[in-house]
Amino acid sequence: MAAEVRNTKQKQAVYEVLLSLDHPTATEVFDRVHETYPSISRGTVFRVLGAFARDGKIRKLQLSDSDDRYDPRMTAHYHARCRGCGRVYDQFLPDVDRLLSGLSLKGFACDGHELEFFGSCENCKKGDE
Ligand SMILES: [Zn+2]
Ligand SMILES: [Zn+2]
């Protein structure tokens, strides 16, 4: 029972950290959770993240040139990655949602997709000028 309670607290801590960071990697989540819960292990944090992703509580993002990142925002959106600073920006594109939902793939039952954009964010563009 005690382990159960600790488990719930750890899960909650992981989720709160996810909300406070911007598309963090598992290592970034671990580093932050570890500040508050020094006893938590890297394996536990990684396991909790995996379980959240499987349960559909969060999204696991497999972006190019990056370790897997985690996103607690479950509403439909896409990601734009800055080649300069590596930051990942949320993009809400209802036109793309409409287009993709109307697509049918030949001989394939599709249950998901990823779409990634690359470029420079405002901050990095300014730095170049
Ligand atoms: Zn940038
Ligand atoms: Zn996102």
Question: Can you describe this structure?
Answer:
The longest helix is centred in the N-terminal third of the chain and has 19 residues, at 2-20. Helix 2 (26-36) packs across helix 3. The termini are far apart. The chain is flat, with a radius of gyration of 17 Å. It is built from five helices and five strands, in the order H-H-H-E-E-E-E-H-E-H. The chain has 129 residues and is α+β, with helices and mostly antiparallel strands. A three-stranded mixed sheet has the order 4-3-5, with no helix packed on it. It has a two-stranded antiparallel ribbon with strand order 1-2. The structure holds zinc ion (2 copies). Residues 23, 71, 73, 77, 79, 90 line the site of one zinc ion.
Short description:
With 129 residues, the protein is α+β, with helices and mostly antiparallel strands.
Which tags fit this structure?
5 helices, 3-stranded mixed sheet, alpha+beta, two-stranded antiparallel ribbon, 15% strand, Arc Repressor Mutant, subunit A, 129 residues, flat, Dna Ligase, domain 1, binds zinc ion
Secondary-structure element pattern, one letter each: HHHEEEEHEH
CATH topology grouping of the largest domain = Arc Repressor Mutant, subunit A
The CATH superfamily of the largest domain is identified as Winged helix-like DNA-binding domain superfamily/Winged helix DNA-binding domain
Radius of gyration: 17 Å
Give me the CATH architecture of the largest domain, please.
Orthogonal Bundle
**Weakly predicted, low-confidence segments:** none
Distance between the termini: 59 Å
Task: Enumerate the strands of the largest sheet in spatial order, edge to edge or round the barrel.
Answer: 4-3-5
CATH class of the largest domain: Mainly Alpha
Q: What average pLDDT do the residues reach? A: 90
Number of helices: 5
Overall domain count: 2
Shape: flat
Q: Structural class, from secondary structure content? A: alpha+beta
* Main pleated sheet: 3 strands, mixed
Report the sheet-strand fraction: 5-15%
Number of strands: 5
Helix content: 40-55%
